[in-house]
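Below is how a single chain appears once it has passed through the pipeline. First comes the sequence as given, then the structure the pipeline wrote out for it. We keep one example in the README because the format questions we get most often are answered faster by looking than by reading.
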Amino acid sequence: MPTNKNAQLRYKILDRCFSNFKHKYTIDELVDEVNESLSDLTGKVISLRQIRDDIKYMRDRVYYNAPIKAYPFGSGRQCYYRYEDPDFSIFDNELSVEEVNNLRSTIDMLGKFRGTPANVWLEEVISNLEYRFNIKPNTESLIAFENNEQLKGLEYLSSIIDMTIHHQPVIIHYRSFKGKEQNAIIHPY
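Resulting structure:
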């Protein structure tokens, strides 16, 4: 999605107009509607060209893919705009395609840590995410992590991750092979 705040406001206004099946909005009426709503909020005026670009953007973007159709009326030179599907709205989508792809990548990355004793909770989280957002796990493995079942200290990994997330220092008690002991304060974040 664009980061331009006015673009989001324009899309909301246009979405409302395209969803209104009681009124037939021509391109000039869309410009007037957007300018009327935006002038109260920002004081800026939007051109006809900008509205045409916004309609094209809303139609062409994968995560919007808005079914906006121009219906000719009158002498055939004018047309009004609305969604083909009366129930469609660009703001009804829970997640954009880009967000779903990012979530899928995150689930795939977390899935690499499945099966370790310290990450039993991860199985439930990943399953819930896959079910909630209807995301199928990726069976192709791009990155592999070595897994050593005899590795000691894995039970502390989740605590260290939590401390890192919450910006907490970790006190580690270290004993060298020669038997010398010392405490160290580490800031993993």
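The domain at 5-83 is CATH 1.10.10.10 (Arc Repressor Mutant, subunit A).

See the next section for the split statistics.
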